[in-house]
Structure formats: C-alpha cells, structure tokens
Design a protein that fits this description.
The structure holds two protein chains of two kinds. By secondary structure, chain A is mostly helical. The radius of gyration of chain A is 18 Å and the shape is globular. In chain A, helix 3 runs antiparallel to helix 5. The two termini of chain A are 33 Å apart. Chain B has 13 helices and 17 strands. By secondary structure, chain B is α+β, with helices and mostly antiparallel strands. In chain B, helix 1 runs parallel beside helix 4, helix 9 crosses helix 10 and helix 10 packs antiparallel against helix 12. Chain B has four domains: 149 residues, Beta-Lactamase, CATH 3.30.450.40; 78 residues, PAS domain (Beta-Lactamase), CATH 3.30.450; 78 residues, Helix Hairpins (Orthogonal Bundle), CATH 1.10.287; 158 residues, Histidine kinase-like ATPase, C-terminal domain (Heat Shock Protein 90, 2-Layer Sandwich). Classes of the chains: A mainly alpha, B alpha+beta. Chains A and B meet through helix 3, helix 5, helix 6, helix 7 and helix 16 of A and helix 1, helix 3, strand 3, strand 4 and helix 4 of B.
Chain lengths: 281, 507
C-alpha cells in the first residue's frame, strides 16, 4: 500500500456538496431559523424529497404527513434533519457498491443501527445532546468503506482474515499492520472539515480509554457501547469474525448498571425494526 | 447594543432556569420556571401541564383554558413519548410546543405551550435550550417526587411511631430494648415510672445478655429484694437487640400466697375442731360414765377412767398451747427466754419423756459427744422442737418395718452445734420438703387423715429455731426416711458478756 497514492485517492472521494454543507452549517448555527433551511433545500428538490421521505418514515411515526422541510425541522428538530441529510449523502456516496466477502448494505445497516442505539443510550443515561450521537454512530465506521473504495483488495482480505481467524476487523488490521479504518476515517473527515466530535468517535471507539479525559469522552464511550450492542444484536454486519468484549471502563464512565443496560438492549430491536426506510435510502 | 453570542444566551437561559428552580418545592414551581424561561423567547398565549395517572395522561394545570382538544394532544404525546424529545407543531392557533420532562428514558410530565407565531420564529438555538430544559427539569421533578415521598413517608412513620408509643406506654409492663453494648435503646413509660433498683436492673441486664447470646427469648420469675418479678425476653433478630418485658408480680404472688393460706386456714379449722373433739368427747364420755356409775363402780375402775380423763385433758391442753403459740407466731410475739444450758442432758431428757408413751417398737439411739456443749437456748421451747420432731418420726413411721429407728446425733461445728434426727419412716416427697415448715401445711398422703395433727407443729419449730438465730431444715427420701437438722449458734463471748446467766437448775 503506497501511502501517498492512498491519500490522493481519499482526497478524490466525494465530499459533502453545497446543499449538505449548508444544512450542516444551518443546523449548527443558533440564529438560523427553520425557514432558512427550507430555502437551501429548495435548491436540490430530489435531496429535499428524500429527506421528507425519511421524516415521514415509520421510524419517526409522525401523527400526520409533513410536506415541507420547515415542518420537519420544527417537529423533529434542526439536528435530526441534519442527520437525515447526512444519512442520505453518506449512503448515496459511500455505501453503494459491491465487495467480495461482505454485503456493503450490511455495513450500512450496522452504521444506522449504531446511530439509533446511540440515541437510545443517551436517553436512558440522561445525556441531552443525543442527535450528535446519531451522527457519531452513523460515521464511526466510515473508514471501512473508505478502505473498500480506496484499497478494495486489502479490504476484502481483511474481511476474510477476520472471519478465518475469528478476530475483529480491527484486530485483523493490527495483525497485518496497516493503517486502521480509524485512520482512514480521520483522513476523510478532516478532508470534509467535519466536526471534531465525529472524528473523535470514529478514531477512538475501539479504544475509548486512549482518548483520555476530553469533552468528547461521553460521545466516544456511548459510541463504543452502541457498536457493541449493534454487533451483539446482529444489527447489520461490521466485518468482524468475533464478538469483542465491552471494556469495563464503559460501564464506569457511563454510570451504567446491569438493569439499565438490559433495558436499553431490550428496547433496541423494536426501534431497529422501524429503520427500514433508513436501511434502503 | 450588540446581541450576545449563542453561548451567552444559552448560559443566561440556563442560569435563569437554575435560579427559578432553586426555590422549587412543588411540581407547579417547576412548570412556572419552564414557563418563565420560555417567555423570554416566545410570546405564550396559554400553557398546559399533563401528568400520568394510572397509564393515562391527564391535564393538571391549564392557564387559561387550553384551546387544543385533548384528542389531538394525545397524538402529540404519543410522538413525544416515542421520540423522547420536544417538538414544535404548526397548528391553526400558531405553534404548539410540547416539552417532555425526561428521566432515564421515561417521560415524567408534559408541558404544552401555545405560541402565536410561525416557523420564522423557531430558531435553531431553541432546540438546544429546550432539549436541556427537558432533561434538567426531569431530574428536578424526579427529585421533587422523591422529596415528597420521603416527607410523606416520614410523616406516616411519625404518626405510626406515636400510635405505637401510646400503646406501649399504656401497658403496665415495663418494656426495655437492649442493644449489643447492653445499653437501653428503648424504654416505655411504665419502665420510667418504676424506678427500679440497681439489683433489679442487674437482673434485667443479665436477662438481656442471655437473650443476645442465646439469640432466643425466654421467660423467668425472680424474687429480688422481697419483691417478685416476671420477665419475658424476645430476641429481635433484625436489630440484634433484646427486648425485655418486666412485671412486678409481688402483689399477685402475695395474693396467691394469701389465698393459699386462707384455704389452709379453712382446712385447719375443720381439722382442729376434729382434733379438739377427740379428747373432748373422750373426756365427756368418761366423765358421764363415772358420774352415772358412782357408787356402783369400784375404785380401781374409776381410777382408770380418771387416768384416761387426765391424759385426754393433757392432750387438749397441748393442742390449746399449740394454738396459743400459733397465734403468737402470727403476730411474731413468740418470746424466747434464752439461757445457757448444756445440750446433752436436755436431749436425753426429752427422749426419755417420749419413750414411755411408745409401744416399744421404737428404738431411739443417741450419739452424743462426751464434752458438754453449752448453748444459749429457751429450754422449754427447744424441748418442744426436739419433742415435736421425734414424735413426728414416730407418728409417720413406716408400717412395713418392724422397728422404727430414730437416731439423734449432736455434732459440734465451728460456731454452731448441729442436732440431727434421722428416722427410717415413710419419708417426705421432694415437692413437699420445702413447704413442711409453712403453717397449716400437711403433706398430702394416705396418712394425712389417718394421722392426727394441726399442721402447725413444724411452723412453730421453725419460728422457735429462728428465735434462737438458728436454722431448721430436712432431707428425705421416700420410703427410706427423713433427717431433720437443727442448727443452733454457739455461745459467743459477746452473748455471755451480756450477762446472760447460766441456768443450772434441773427441771
């Protein structure tokens, strides 16, 4: 693997277009109003109608159909609409190809499931900023598809190795000593000029302790837990050949008790069952 | 004036909300805090609060009448419960804000606000602020609910405590609870009123200790300082403490004793009348016979009649004296005239005076020391005691034996002299052994009615012995015989120095 070539290839990968950039920006800009976002979305009607389709999906279960983005923003919130836009963009640009040994759709399912489970964990443990966890969960394994797109043979070998040796994808990466999907994700997201918190979640969810104490600690620990739950519950496929164990630190950091853990896991299946529209964007 | 940054506004809002909640004691305070914060961002036309009662969401505070029908609100509630998030709904009247208060993934309450306005008024920063209010108010509401539960519980406990204390205090029994350190952790009113002496408290402590070491309760009655107490203890496993209930049963004990004495007195009266009638009827019969046959009967026969007459009147006199002694015994006025006497001749004389009356089947053996033993006694009274015990030995002899052996022994001890009178009679059952010295008491046996007696003899003996600062007790085995012990204190220097003269006169 030539590093320089790889880096160049990463740079050539699609980055958020104007509309998504605007949506992300508006969603993080305190003074923007619901109407502002509507104006932006008008510039890409196809994209807007995809967002509305998700907003009207069974996942959100709105009491009545929404036909305007403004309405969706008011009812579901700025950041939820942002998450939908991001979901559509990443799915359309990073999860629409075929690979040997694994169905890329399953990796997508894993990503969306982590996003949802992350939100549920936040609700249960009383962490208000839950929309950011959706984003972190959604993007945490983006490095894997980046590998699949940039170094496809290597990606397929890693999947095969993980299955054969019954190790995790991450352990397989370490075995053949190549830059991990964490590194690939970080490179991509930096190219995108994406928020640091998402980079933190993508880079540290396998080793949350290495992050040290940071304002992103909660996000990373929750993402670690949500990937663990998604993997255990077999929501999609993350390319692992085994189940990793949950670091003890996660329990301590999140003040998680066996009963609250059990409660979260019990509720996930029901929620995942309603994600169909997200799975097949 | 420049508008503050979003962070500034967020912090100002959080500070206002925190200040509003600082004095919140009721659920209502939380909602007025939410309302006051929201008012800074929106014009609000009406508000409504809903709380869950038995799985149904019910409106509690509404200001003014909320214009949106309940049915419609329920659909918003369902959405918000599912999403665990607030929403702004465009409605005919403007914008409806639904704000759940969240705790651990549960919605505790819903706050509705109707905002006249349109989507232009909804800015991104409201999402962050309202989201924060949702979570923060949830924590406060849960704490308030817990606080009210605790207050309520403690009020209930206080009432219950008073209720049970009143019950416990109304009980005559003293109730104490002792902890591991053998200190009292609870006492009731009766205990405080009893003013128990140290010796009683020591007994109670002992009972508490035993209860704790046995980890089991027990019941016991004890006599302390001439009062009777009944104790019941309970092992309180959860607290590892011992509960002791105590009752002064002196009065009921005394009552029991008096009842028994009364019963015995009744028996005594019927018994003594029988005892008196026997010699009396003999005296009368012989007297009448003599008078009727005067002149026709020879002198020898008359002499025999008169002899018996005299004998019976002697017995009558004995009974009367015993009765007299008894009445003195009742008011403790039995007087002793103690003088110094040698013991051996006294014993020998008593035995001699009894022997001729027996029919010869009695063998009284004496084992007396050669050295004279001088004791300070009322000679007549001591005679009475010795005589009574020896006569008893003969009276209660074992009919299966051909010879009744009575052995009288005198042993000099360090500062007393012990007279033992051992027989091979019918013996005294163990349960009666302690009671034979009680007045009126007669051992229940086949012989009770066959053998005459007032039931006063041994009680008088005991009184006499105590009048001599001595003791009397008995040991016995059924069928084998009994041994009576008389212990008389030896002359002390002090006693003789008191100028008690030695009586050497022979009676």
């Amino acid at each position: 693997m030539e590093l320089k070539k790889t880096l160049q290839k990463i740079e050539q990968l699609p980055s958020p277009d104007f509309v998504l950039q605007k949506i992300v920006e508006t969603a993080s800009s305190p003074n923007s109003s619901a109407k502002d976002l509507n104006e932006i979305a008008k510039k890409d009607q196809a994209f807007a109608s995809k967002i509305l389709k998700l907003a009207n999906s069974t996942y959100y279960g709105l009491p009545r159909k929404v036909s305007q983005l403004t309405e969706a923003i008011m009812i579901l919130g700025f950041k939820t609409v942002r998450n939908m836009a991001l979901s559509i963009f990443t799915h359309d640009n990073y999860y629409r190809f075929r690979a040997k040994n694994i169905d890329i759709k399953d990796i997508w399912k894993h990503a969306v499931s982590c996003a949802t489970v992350g939100e549920m964990i936040a609700e249960r443990i009383g962490y208000p900023n839950k929309e950011e966890l959706f984003m972190c969960g959604l993007m945490h394994d983006i490095g894997k598809t980046v590998q699949a797109m940039v170094v496809p043979e290597l990606f397929e070998q890693l999947i095969a190795l993980a299955r054969l040796r019954k190790v995790s994808y991450y352990q397989a990466e370490r075995l053949i000593e190549i830059p991990t999907h964490e590194v690939f994700a970080e490179m991509l997201l930096q190219n995108w000029d994406f928020p640091e918190m998402v980079i933190a979640a993508a880079s540290f969810h396998h080793r949350p302790k290495s992050l040290g104490t940071s304002i992103y600690s909660d996000l990373v620990y929750i993402t670690t837990l949500s990937t663990y739950i998604a993997e255990r519950m077999k929501f999609g496929d993350n390319g692992s050949g085994t189940h990793i164990s949950l670091p003890l630190q996660v329990w301590h950091e999140l003040g998680l008790t066996p009963s609250s853990f059990h409660e979260i896991v019990q509720k996930t299946q029901h929620k995942i069952d309603r994600l169909d529209d997200f799975f097949s964007i | 004036m420049r508008a503050g940054t979003s962070i500034d506004r967020f912090l100002l809002t959080v500070s206002t909300f925190s200040r509003e909640l600082n004095t919140a004691r009721k659920l209502n305070d939380v909602f007025s805090a939410i309302n006051n914060v929201l008012k800074r961002f929106f014009q609000i036309s009406s508000t409504l609060v809903m709380i869950q009662k038995k799985d149904e969401w019910e409106p509690v505070f509404s200001d003014p009448e909320f214009p949106i029908p309940m049915e419609e609100l329920k659909t918003y509630i369902d959405l918000s419960s599912d999403r665990k998030a607030h929403s702004f709904f465009p409605v005919d009247e403007g914008i409806l804000l639904i704000l759940p208060s969240l705790k651990s993934g549960q919605v505790l309450t819903f706050f509705f606000a109707l905002i006249p306005g349109n989507s232009d008024d909804i800015r991104q920063e409201f999402d962050s602020i309202i989201n924060f209010i949702s979570f923060f108010s949830g924590i406060v509401i849960e704490n308030l609910q817990l606080y009210h539960e605790v207050v309520e519980q403690s009020a209930i406990q206080e009432t219950l405590k008073k209720y049970f204390l009143t019950i416990l205090d109304s009980i005559d029994e003293a109730i104490m609870v002792w902890n591991k350190e053998v200190e009292m952790s609870f006492v009731n009113l009766s205990f405080r009123h009893m003013n128990l002496s140290d010796s009683v408290m020591e007994t109670v402590k002992g009972i508490a200790r035993k209860t704790m070491s046995d980890q089991a309760g027990f019941s016991v009655e004890k006599e302390i300082d001439e009062a009777f107490y009944s104790f019941n203890s309970v092992w309180m496993e959860a607290q590892e403490e011992a509960l002791v209930r105590m009752e002064d049963i002196t009065r009921s004990k005394e009552l029991e004793r008096l009842k028994r004495i009364d019963q015995m007195k009744t028996e005594f009266v019927s018994n003594i009348s029988h005892e008196l009638r026997t010699p009396l009827s003999a005296i009368k019969a012989y007297g009448e016979t003599v008078i009727d046959s005067l002149g026709t009967t020879d002198t020898e026969t008359i002499q025999e009649f008169m002899g018996t007459l005299l004998e019976q009147s002697d017995h009558l006199e004995f009974l009367l004296e015993q009765l007299l002694d008894f009445s003195k015994l009742e008011d403790h006025s039995l007087q002793m005239e103690r003088k110094a006497h040698d013991l051996q001749p006294l014993v020998e004389k008593t035995v001699k005076s009894i022997l001729p009356n027996s029919d010869g089947s009695v063998d009284i053996q004496l084992d007396l020391p050669d050295v004279p033993i001088e004791v300070l006694i009322d000679k007549k009274r001591m005679n009475q005691v010795l005589g009574h015990i020896i006569k008893n030995a003969i009276k209660y002899r074992n009919p299966d034996r051909s010879t009744t052996v009575i052995r009288v022994t005198i042993t000099k001890q360090e500062d007393s002299v012990l007279i033992t009178i051992a027989d091979n009679g019918i013996g005294i059952p163990e349960e009666s052994l302690e009671r034979i010295f009680e007045k009126f008491y007669r051992v229940e046996s086949g012989l009770t009615y066959a053998v005459e007696g007032t039931g006063l003899g041994l009680a008088i003996c005991k009184e006499i012995m105590e009048g001599h600062k001595g003791k009397i007790w008995a040991e016995s085995s059924l069928e084998l015989g009994s041994t009576f012990f008389l212990q008389i204190p030896l002359n002390r220097m002090a006693d003789t120095a008191d100028g008690i003269e030695k009586d050497t006169a022979e009676d």
